[in-house]
C-alpha cells in the first residue's frame, strides 16, 4: 500500500520549513521564541552520534584480522578529502576573483564594529598540528563519549574493534552484541527523525525571525555567487566524480532528500549524520567504510566550508579595498587548507574557521568579517548542504575504491528506494534479520 503523502518525512519537513519561514516573516518575535524546538532536535541528534559511530565502527571492523586495511581505508579517504577540498578552495578563489562580490563597499575596517565578531575570533584559536593530534586522544574514554567528540570516539572505536577482532572466537558474543546494539541505536535514530519536522520548523522560524530576509539584500551578490558556486561544485565536480564511480548525482540527491531538508532546516550537517550513515549502508557501502569515512569526513572534508572560506576572505579584502597579490591569495588557500581541518558540522562553524584563517593572514582586516556576520546563518545553510552531499559522495567513492560497494544494490536503491523496515519506523512491518557483520575484502 502506498504511504499517504502527508506521512512522508520529506513532505513533512518541507511543510515545516515553509511554515517556519512564514512565521519568521509575519511574526518575527514569535519566530525567535521557537529556537528551543530547533536546539532540542539538534541535542537529540548529538545524543546519539557517539553511540552510532562507536557501534558502526566496532561492528564493522571487528571481523577484520588486518589493521593494515583500516589504514588503507583511512589513507584513501584522506587522499580523496585533500584533493576534493583543494578543488573546492580553488573554485571559491576563482569565482571571487571573477565575480568580485565585495567591490563597491568601500568599507573602512577601523569604523566597523569589531566587537560583534570578538566572540568568533576568540573561539578561533589556531591549533598546531601537534595540538590537533593530541586533541584526538581523549583524556578518558568516558570523556570522549561525554563530550561527543567525533574523532575521539572514532579513535577508541577503531582500537576497540581491532582488539575484538584479535580475540577471534572468544570475541564473537561481544561483536554480535554490539552489532545488535547498532540496530537498537538506529531504531533511536528512526524515532528521533520523526520529530525532525518540529526541529526544522523551530530552527527556520528562529533564523528568519532573528535575521530577517531584508538583511540579505545588500549582500545578495555574495550570497548568490556562493549558492551558485556550491551548486556548480555539487553538480559538476561531485557529479563527475559520481559518474566515474558509476552513479548519478541527481539520483543520489533525490535519495537523501529528507536528510538534505533537515540539514537545510537546522543549518547543520551533523543533524543528519546518523541518518546519512544508515542510508549509505542501505545503498550498499560496507559498514567499516561508512564507519570510518563519514566521521572523518566531518573533520577533513568540508567542501562547502572550503568554498566559503576563499570566497569570504576575498570578499572581505575587496570590500575593504585591500589589494591581494596572487601569492597572498595562494597563502590564504594554503592556510585555509589547514584551518578547515577540524571544523565541525554545527551551525556557524564555518564563520569561526574563517576567523581562524584571517587571523593567520594579517593583510586582510579581521574586522571586515562584521560585514557578513548578519547573513552568516543563511551562508551556513549552503555550507552545511554542500558538506553533507560531499561526505556522502566521498563514502561511496572510497567504498568503490576498496571494492566494498555493492553496485547492484546501489543502482536498484537509487532507482527505487526500498522502504525502511526498522520497527521503530514502521511498527506494523516485520523486522529484517540483522545483517551479518561484514569484514573488509582481502
Ligand atoms: O553544518 C555544517 O556542515 C557547516 C555549518 O553549518 C557551518 O555553519 O559552517
UniProtKB/TrEMBL annotation:
Keyword Transport set for record: yes
Topological relation to the membrane, as annotated: Multi-pass membrane protein
CC terms in the record's Gene Ontology section: plasma membrane
Keywords: Cell membrane, Membrane, Symport, Transmembrane, Transmembrane helix, Transport
Composition skew (Low complexity), residue ranges: 422-442
GO MF: fumarate transmembrane transporter activity; malate:proton symporter activity; succinate transmembrane transporter activity
Protein name, entry field: C4-dicarboxylate transport protein
Amino acid at each position: 500500500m502506498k504511504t499517504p503523502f502527508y506521512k512522508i518525512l520529506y513532505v513533512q519537513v518541507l511543510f515545516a520549513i515553509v511554515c517556519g519561514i512564514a512565521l519568521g516573516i509575519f511574526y518575527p518575535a514569535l519566530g525567535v521564541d521557537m529556537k528551543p524546538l530547533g536546539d532540542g532536535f539538534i541535542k537529540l541528534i548529538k545524543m546519539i552520534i557517539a553511540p552510532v559511530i562507536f557501534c558502526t565502527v566496532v561492528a564493522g571492523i571487528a571481523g577484520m584480522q588486518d589493521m593494515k586495511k583500516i589504514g588503507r581505508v583511512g589513507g584513501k579517504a584522506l587522499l580523496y578529502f585533500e584533493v576534493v577540498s583543494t578543488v573546492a578552495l580553488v573554485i571559491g578563489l576563482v569565482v571571487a576573483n571573477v565575480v568580485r562580490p565585495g567591490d563597491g563597499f568601500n568599507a573602512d575596517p577601523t569604523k566597523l564594529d569589531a566587537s560583534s565578531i570578538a566572540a568568533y575570533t576568540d573561539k578561533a584559536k589556531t591549533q598546531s598540528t601537534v595540538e590537533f593530534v593530541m586533541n584526538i586522544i581523549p583524556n578518558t574514554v568516558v570523556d570522549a563519549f561525554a563530550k561527543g567528540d567525533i574523532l575521539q570516539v572514532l579513535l577508541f572505536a577503531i582500537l576497540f574493534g581491532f582488539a575484538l577482532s584479535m580475540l577471534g572466537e572468544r570475541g564473537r558474543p561481544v561483536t554480535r552484541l554490539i552489532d545488535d546494539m547498532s540496530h537498537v541505536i538506529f531504531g533511536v535514530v528512526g524515532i528521533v527523525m520523526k520529530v525532525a519536522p518540529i526541529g526544522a520548523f523551530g530552527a527556520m522560524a528562529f533564523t528568519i525571525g532573528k535575521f530577517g530576509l531584508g538583511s540579505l539584500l545588500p549582500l545578495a551578490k555574495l550570497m548568490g555567487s556562493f549558492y551558485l558556486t556550491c551548486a556548480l561544485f555539487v553538480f559538476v565536480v561531485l557529479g563527475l566524480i559520481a559518474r566515474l564511480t558509476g552513479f548519478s548525482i541527481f539520483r543520489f540527491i533525490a535519495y537523501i532528500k529528507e536528510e538534505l531538508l533537515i540539514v537545510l532546516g537546522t543549518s547543520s550537517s551533523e543533524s543528519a549524520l546518523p541518518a546519512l550513515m544508515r542510508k549509505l549502508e542501505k545503498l550498499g557501502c560496507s559498514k567499516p567504510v561508512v564507519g570510518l569515512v563519514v566521521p572523518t569526513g566531518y573533520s577533513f572534508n568540508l567542501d562547502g566550508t572550503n568554498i566559503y572560506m576563499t570566497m569570504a576572505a576575498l570578499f572581505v579584502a575587496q570590500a575593504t579595498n585591500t589589494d591581494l597579490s596572487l601569492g597572498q591569495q595562494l597563502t590564504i588557500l594554503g592556510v585555509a587548507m589547514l584551518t578547515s581541518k577540524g571544523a565541525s558540522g554545527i551551525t556557524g562553524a564555518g564563520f569561526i574557521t574563517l576567523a581562524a584563517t584571517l587571523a593567520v593572514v594579517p593583510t586582510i582586516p579581521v574586522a571586515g568579517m562584521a560585514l557578513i556576520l548578519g547573513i552568516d546563518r543563511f551562508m551556513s545553510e549552503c555550507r552545511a548542504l554542500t558538506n553533507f552531499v560531499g561526505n556522502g559522495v566521498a563514502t561511496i567513492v572510497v567504498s568503490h575504491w576498496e571494492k566494498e560497494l555493492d553496485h547492484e544494490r546501489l543502482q536498484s536503491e537509487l532507482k527505487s528506494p526500498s522502504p525502511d523496515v526498522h520497527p521503530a519506523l514502521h511498527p506494523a512491518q516485520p523486522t529484517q534479520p540483522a545483517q551479518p557483520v561484514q569484514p573488509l575484502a582481502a
